[in-house]
Specification:
CATH topology: TIM Barrel
Number of helices: 12
Radius of gyration: 19 Å
Order of helices and strands: HEHHEHHEEEHEHEHEHEHEHH
Largest sheet: 8 strands, parallel
Structural class: alpha/beta
Helix content: 40-55%
Strand content: 5-15%
CATH class: Alpha Beta
CATH architecture: Alpha-Beta Barrel
Length: 340
């Protein structure tokens, strides 16, 4: 492991108030999104859509890295140019999702454990040789009656830490993603408690596995009320609760926190990130950035709808959405910018 190279890569990924674009949806997830819009669920349709993304003019102005899926990192433009070359030639760093998905956890009804550690060292070697310089692993924590259990939190935290250690050994910056799912009726206070417990446990395991904190990225959820919670809160309340939770649980040595969007609308994700940077940026030890998937892609996907004639308009929407999130990193996002 070359710690300085990891640190340099992380610094590049956080520089210029840029963020990460997650385009690492599994084939089944991508197909579901296509199906809702009447787009064919084929490998060629997925390749065409991903070509639309990676060839978007000016994307490097606001995106420092893209997270790919195994199928995507092996694909190429219609003219045969590998996506990896397109991405790196654009000045963007390629990354790769390396977990194999969340599966039902034995002995823990309603909870999941993320798999993919078997054979990971060899897969990371291959991805590094292909040009990837960072990787992502997502753990999923559900909240409900009696859950999450300590067993679930600790097992997922240990897997995240072991993945991170293997990444750093192979020269890849680990993106550590412990996602507390917020899709039910629980309150902001409940999700804050769970998120803090999860993050504390994750960092205990990262210390145990001797992770170089300066050479990693944390990708957590924002602290929100559940989607069906009757008590929704203002943007500033989300900002306050999220930053308070992070200050209690995330070491200052971590260079950047790149939030997942977690089902938020594009506008809300940008507004909440902006509020955090407006209110707290000058006082925080880490940068607050974004690693959004749907919150950047969805407007473009809805415009494209599988039609070649819509590619340019879809790319313009993708570029615009990425620039809005860069503005949110700077604390300069305004709702009026949505219409420009």
């Amino acid at each position: 492991m070359n710690a300085q190279e990891l640190i340099n890569t992380t610094r590049t990924l956080v520089a210029g108030d840029k963020g990460l674009l997650a385009m690492d949806e599994s084939n089944p997830t991508c197909n579901k999104r296509f199906a809702r819009l009447g787009i064919p669920q084929t490998e060629e349709a997925r390749r065409t859509y991903r070509e639309l993304i990676v060839t978007t003019p000016g994307l490097c102005e606001s995106i420092s890295g893209v997270i790919l899926y195994d199928e995507t990192i092996r694909q190429a433009k219609k003219d045969g140019t590998p996506f990896i070359k397109v991405i790196t030639d654009a000045g963007i760093i390629p990354g790769i999702k390396v977990d194999t998905g969340a599966k039902e956890m034995a002995g823990h009804p309603g909870e999941k454990i993320t798999e993919g550690l078997d054979g990971l060292r060899d897969r990371l070697k291959e991805y590094f040789q292909m040009g990837a310089r960072f990787a992502k692993w997502r753990a999923v924590i559900a909240v409900g009656d009696g859950i999450p259990s300590r067993g679930c939190i600790e097992a997922n935290a240990q897997a995240l830490a072991r993945y991170a250690a293997l990444c750093q050994e192979e020269g890849l910056v680990p993106v550590v993603e412990p996602e507390v799912l917020m899709d039910d009726e629980h309150t902001l206070e409940r999700y804050s408690e769970v998120t803090e417990e999860v993050l504390r446990t994750v960092f205990n395991q990262l210390y145990t596995q001797r992770i170089t904190l300066e050479g990693m990225i944390l990708k957590p959820n924002m602290v929100l009320p559940g989607l069906s919670c009757p008590k929704q809160v203002a943007v500033n309340e989300v900002a306050d609760a999220t930053v308070r939770c992070l200050l209690r649980a995330v070491p200052a040595a971590v260079p950047v926190i790149a939030f997942l969007s977690g089902g938020q609308s594009s506008e809300l994700a940008s507004a909440r990130l902006n509020a955090m940077n407006v209110r707290f940026k000058s006082r925080l030890p880490w940068a607050l950035s974004f690693s959004f998937a749907r919150a950047i892609q969805q407007p473009a996907l809805e415009i494209w709808q599988g039609e070649e004639a819509h590619v340019l308009a879809a790319q313009q929407a993708l570029y615009h959405r990425a620039k809005l999130n860069q503005a949110a990193r700077r604390g300069e996002y305004k709702a009026a910018m949505e219409r420009t």
